[in-house]
């Protein structure tokens, strides 16, 4: 089992990036070095697969500017790879990046170097494969109005106030768009106008679709003029779909640059901006909040397990959370919440400041604890140890978090300090579900909390008890992997306990400190 402890991440997006990299054993990339005369840059370098430590050398073999200069790409372990072209997104399955031309053209022998350091769990094989990694890492805008922040255009938003507006007096020109987790090509654009009758004049009328590889230099790909987004005579907003001309290529930054609205001199705004690509004959929105789906084959290499996580935020509510889920497969043509036999999604509340986290990973489950301010939140997703044979219980998966996910119902999301959050394992909780023998997701009980016993340490030692899952009038299913019951008697949160040669972290139930409000995470 692989274990990661960190105090380095700030905010839910950094935490998700770091956890994702550890779960998938992705190598850490150093800052690119450069020697030569060209004044461009190498942007957006990302590892794409587990790999050993090596150095990447990216050397100009044909000089020139954007779309002309060609670079060889060689790994010290992986060897020569396909060549890269300036200002064309590059991905060889091991590393991806964008070479962005500057004012001085690239010259032959101009060279970038990137050091890749293998993950600590790479050699042991205790990691999952990433089968999906995409979405919005940041919403970018020229300005925003209080209670109408730019992030409100990210789907889903379900109330009238869920729309973006520029700050007063900054109506035109204006822009709004996305910095993406991974580069995508926008092949279809959807825009929904404001939902307020009085707001129709704010809707965009003339606008450009622009892309960038560095968030600084923008290229217009296509333009539209004379657009309206309301239906007459009702005055309600409509969502319009715009076909995008092919050939833009994949990029990390996309935005709508608005040069005129429908008559409002003070503000511009609208409700929704969706960008899509065609995947497996389905239009897929890649502008939902960033997400990752993982796949592993279990401890015996005989399973086909899928779990995932997705970030979301509502700044005005101080909400910066993750949602976690288990599923039975991956459909690239469907959104995160519509994956095959997707479980109920659970919430892992975080925040936008410094975090302390503990993450344990093996090839059948992922579990984590995060200290957020003075609150301790946790999740578990993947398999447990069943009491049945694989033939009797082929999909023994569970997923749990601090609460049932309410993302998409604006105003119903909650921040990390919400007093109804609870550890998923305590008794019989709605925020903990199990895929039972019949293949449906159900709410199990967890022993020993279900029994209602009070425990304490014995001769200064704290017994570590299994958390056993079952259903009343059905039977016992099995026990969790790496997560245990421990009494809080004479124990404090973040204490470590050694038992049977193993080290365990004591964690309490969010903020609760009673004797029965603790569990133990095995650190190894």
Oligomer: single chain
Shape: globular
- Give start-end ranges of low-pLDDT stretches: none
The helix-and-strand class reads mainly beta
Proportion of residues in helical segments: under 10%
Question: Could you name the key traits of this structure?
Answer:
single chain; 524 residues; mainly beta; Jelly Rolls; 3 domains; 7-stranded antiparallel sheet; 1 helix; globular
Structure in words:
By secondary structure, the protein is an all-beta fold. It has 3 domains: 27-118, no CATH class; 136-285, Galactose-binding domain-like (Jelly Rolls, Sandwich); 291-522, no CATH class. The chain has 1 helix and 40 strands. The protein has a 7-stranded antiparallel sheet with strand order 1-27-28-29-31-33-34, covered by helices on one side. Strands 30, 35, 36, 37, 38, 39 and 40 form a 7-stranded antiparallel sheet that branches. The longest helix has 13 residues, at 11-23. The mean pLDDT is 92.
Summarize this entry quickly.
With 524 residues, this protein is mainly beta. It has three domains: 27-118, no CATH class; 136-285, Galactose-binding domain-like (Jelly Rolls), CATH 2.60.120.260; 291-522, no CATH class.
């Amino acid at each position: 089992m692989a274990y990661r402890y960190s105090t380095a991440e700030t905010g839910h997006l950094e935490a998700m990036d770091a956890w994702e990299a550890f779960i998938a054993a992705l190598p850490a990339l150093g800052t690119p070095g450069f020697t030569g005369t060209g004044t461009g840059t190498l942007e957006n370098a990302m590892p794409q697969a587990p790999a050993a430590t090596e150095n990447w050398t990216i050397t100009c073999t044909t000089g020139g500017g954007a779309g002309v200069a060609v670079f060889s790409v060689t790994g010290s372990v992986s060897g020569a790879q396909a060549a890269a072209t300036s200002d064309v997104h590059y991905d060889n399955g091991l590393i991806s990046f964008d070479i962005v031309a500057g004012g001085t053209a690239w010259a032959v022998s101009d060279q970038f170097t990137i050091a890749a350091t293998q993950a600590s769990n790479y050699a042991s094989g205790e990691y999952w494969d990433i089968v999906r990694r995409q979405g919005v890492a940041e919403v970018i805008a020229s300005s925003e109005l209080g209670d109408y922040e730019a992030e409100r255009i990210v789907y889903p938003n379900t109330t009238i106030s869920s729309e973006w507006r520029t700050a007063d007096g900054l109506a035109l020109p204006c822009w709004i768009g996305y910095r993406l987790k991974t580069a995508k090509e926008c092949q279809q654009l959807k825009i929904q106008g404001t939902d307020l009758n009085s707001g129709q004049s704010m809707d965009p009328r003339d606008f450009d679709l622009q892309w960038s590889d560095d968030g600084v230099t923008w290229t217009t790909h296509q333009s539209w003029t004379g657009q309206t987004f309301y239906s007459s005579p009702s005055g309600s907003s409509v969502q319009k779909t715009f076909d995008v001309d092919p050939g833009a290529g994949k990029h990390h930054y996309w935005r709508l640059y608005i040069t005129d609205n429908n008559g409002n001199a003070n503000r511009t705004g609208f409700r929704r901006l969706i960008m899509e690509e065609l995947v497996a004959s389905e239009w897929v929105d890649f502008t939902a909040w960033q997400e990752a789906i993982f796949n592993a084959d279990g401890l015996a290499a005989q399973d086909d397990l899928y779990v995932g996580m997705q970030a979301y935020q509502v700044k005005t509510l101080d909400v910066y959370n993750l949602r976690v889920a288990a599923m039975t497969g991956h459909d690239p043509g469907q959104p995160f919440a519509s994956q095959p036999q997707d479980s109920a999604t659970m919430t892992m509340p975080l925040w936008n400041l410094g975090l302390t986290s503990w993450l344990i990973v093996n090839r059948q489950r992922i579990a984590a604890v995060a200290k957020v301010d003075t609150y301790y939140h946790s999740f578990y997703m993947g398999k447990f140890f069943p009491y049945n044979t694989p033939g009797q219980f082929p999909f023994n998966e569970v997923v749990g978090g601090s609460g049932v996910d309410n993302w998409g119902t604006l105003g119903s999301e909650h921040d990390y300090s919400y007093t109804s959050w609870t550890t998923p394992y305590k008794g019989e909780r709605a925020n903990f579900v199990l895929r039972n023998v019949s293949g449906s997701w159900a709410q199990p009980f967890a022993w020993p909390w279900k029994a209602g016993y009070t425990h304490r340490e014995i001769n200064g030692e704290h017994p570590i008890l299994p958390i056993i899952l079952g259903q009343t009038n059905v039977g016992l299913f099995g026990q969790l992997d790496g997560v245990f019951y421990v009494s809080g008697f004479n124990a404090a949160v973040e204490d470590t306990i050694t038992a049977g040669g193993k080290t365990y972290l004591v964690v309490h139930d969010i903020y609760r400190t009673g004797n029965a409000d603790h569990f133990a995470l095995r650190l190894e």
